[in-house]
Amino acid sequence: MTRPKILVATAEPAIVHSLASQLKSTGYTALTALDHASALLALREETPVLLIVGEEFVGNGEEMLRFIRRTPGLAEIGIIVLGERRDDEERVHLLDAGADDCLPSAVGQAELTARIHALLRRRERPMPNPVPAPMRGQRCRGSADVRGQALAAGLAAFEPIDLAEMGRMALLNRVESKYVLPRPLLDDLLNGLSDFYSVLVIEDHCLNHYRTLYFDTADFAMYRRHHAGALNRYKVRARQYVDTQTSFFEVKFKTNKRRTIKSRLPTTGLPNLLDAELSEFLRNTCPYPATDLQPCLWNRYLRATLANKEANERVTLDFEISFAWGEREACCGEIVIAEVKQEGPPWISPFARLMREHHLCSTGFSKYCMGMSLLYPDVKKNRFKPKQRLIAKLQGKPYVAH
Fold first, then answer.
1. Residue 208: what are its φ and ψ, rounded to 5°?
2. Cα–Cα distance for residue pair 349/24, rounded to 1 Å
């Protein structure tokens, strides 16, 4: 049975850790958020049965509570407000605005568990339907269904392969080559690849949804190393395979030999708070301690995955790529990022050979760096401006400096 999800949202890490631990010990799946934007996004993405929220997120006008209560898909979520509001009038205002209960931040486990059980019994409701996050990646998909159907039709000519068969190509130590393509070109390219590749099919679907949360230091040390072109650089992320609800916490290390080494740890949902297990994982895989890292970028895309029939090689085709953080959003809906992942040199790849026949050269492209350069106005981005211009050109849009 799936454990009910409860979101704990407060700016106090100690309270978040304590409540999350209590919830897990009593049979719930604990989701966490340390800022207002992450809390709202988790509500839309994860649709918990209950929100436990710090009063600092609610605001004097209880805007957050009223927003939840008037939003379809969120209106039925139970809400407990934590804080030290002792005045009866203040508590009444919270209850009128949409809260179901008010508790002190230092509430004991027994009382918290009893209040949660009582609240959920009173509601006796089914889980709400998911509400899409308000990312431009959603709005820019005006013809995404049509484009996705066309791509799926092109992939129908490929032999299917399942996740178990794909497992033999984990390729956690690999060479990567990336290509940036205009979306319409992909249909023509697929016609020449079905003899060499199979396509990953999950539950009868060859196009799969991905969601990623990236982490960096407060001064974006990892982004700055990428911008400087430094070797021996890292990326830290939490990734969810949305269609299978499988999640991993991952560290990618690009060596000075230009090989990519990926380490991963299975997780329950997408963590935005680094607990003891993830902290230990980071100690063993990268030089950035968990205490220095914080979430900074959301990324979504659709992916088709091809597997070489003869060699240990995968090709991923990512499109409908969108980024978001807080109120900032960006979409690259008309391009495809193709990535060849293999143990050996790229020239033996049939896909890379086809790219050369079309006079397309491999180029570095980091979704993390592109999203950061598009959404954060104050970071250095000169190194990534040529890619921004290329994306604008392939989408038929004028280049606008960010």
1. -125, 145
2. 46
DSSP 343: S
Backbone CA torsion sign across 15, 5, 23, 52: positive
Query: What is the per-residue pLDDT across 217-251, written as a single tens digit (0 to 9) for each?
Result: 999 999 999 999 888 899 999 999 888 888 999 99
Round to whole Å and give the CA distance between 294 and 22. 23
Please name the fold of domain 136-394.
Answer: Hypothetical Protein Pfu-838710-001 (2.40.320)
Neighbours of 337 (CB within 10 A): 22
What is 73-129 written as a DSSP string?
Answer: TTTT-EEEEES----HHHHHHHHHHT-SEEE-TT--HHHHHHHHHHHHHHH--PPPP
**Residue whose entry in the numeric block shows the structure tokens 């996050």:** 133
What is the domain partition of the chain in residue ranges? 5-123, 136-394
- Which H or E element spans position 293? strand 293-308
Domain 5-123, architecture per CATH: 3-Layer(aba) Sandwich (3.40)
Contacts 24+ apart (CB under 8 A), 152-156: 152/206, 152/207, 154/186, 154/187, 154/190, 154/191, 155/190, 155/199, 155/206, 155/207, 155/304, 156/206
Q: Is 136-394 in the same CATH topology as 5-123?
A: no
What is the per-residue pLDDT across 111-158, written as a single tens digit (0 to 9) for each?
888 888 888 776 554 333 333 343 433 434 444 455 666 777 788 889
**How many other CB atoms are found less than 10 A from the CB of residue 43?**
26
Which residues, at least 6 apart from 206, have a Cβ–Cβ distance to it below 8 Å?
Answer: 152, 155, 156, 158, 160, 199, 200, 304
